[in-house]
Amino acid sequence: MTPPTPSTTPTESGIWVPELPPTDLVFDDGVPLESNRHRLAMNLLIDSVYAALAPREDFYASGNMFVYYSLAQIKNRDFRGPDFFVALNVDGKKERQGWVIWEEDGKYPDVIVELMSPSTAEIDLTTKKEIYEQRFSTSHYFVFDPFNANSLQGWQRQGNAFVTLQPNERGWLWCEALGLWLGIWQGQVLQETTDWLRFYFPNEQLVLLPREQERLRAEQANMEVERLRARLRELGVDPDAV
């Protein structure tokens, strides 16, 4: 989808010229996420998608970042900041303070997740859903309340409209754009243990974060050491004397 057509202003000669998009955009409104769990859930999704798609560099993922898509939106200070989004087939190494459509060749996010709360659920399920469906032409849209494990819902774009995604037997939803499952995982993130929204590979294996991968490698190495020690003892050799 192409960016909105700028308005025009007359010059002294009477010739109309395009009004250039503003460069003094606001990228932080000072409004925090709903809770610390919402912040952890957002960072978990960001870290997970980078782990899943590595070493690719043709995508960009972020969260709680303003998406600017029209001049009218700027004038009305109608800021839109998805809690989590992924844009595919873009320069992933480019530094960004926000996602500005006319600076991204008209590219909108392909996948969006809103982390709901009682105060935002209605907007997430109506106003934002309509914008992502009709204005953004987003491929996949998901909503999830980090305090309600049964709240996951999702839609996939078919033609010009969203179609509700049907969960598998585990309650997970398939995100075709990313080639990943999105589902619930119960465990500890930092110091909080609860039901988290995580990405899974097509074979339903959990996408591990880098720190989880390191911990798994360490555990496997320790298991191998213990296996070798046990084998030495079977052979009558004291492993501590070797």
What's this, in brief?
This protein is α+β, with helices and mostly antiparallel strands. It has helices at 36-53, 71-75, 121-125, 127-135, 210-234, and strands at 8-10, 16-18, 59-62, 67-68, 84-88, 99-100, 111-115, 140-145, 148-158, 161-164, 173-175, 180-189, 192-200.
Outline the structure in words.
The protein has about 240 residues and is α+β, with helices and mostly antiparallel strands. It folds into 2 domains: about 15-205, tt1808, chain A (Alpha-Beta Complex), CATH 3.90.1570.10; about 210-240. It is about 25% helix and about 30% strand. The chain is built from 5 helices and 13 strands. The strands form 4 sheets. It has a 6-stranded mixed β-sheet. It has a 3-stranded antiparallel β-sheet with strand order 11-12-13. The termini are far apart. The model is unreliable at about 1-15 (pLDDT under 50).
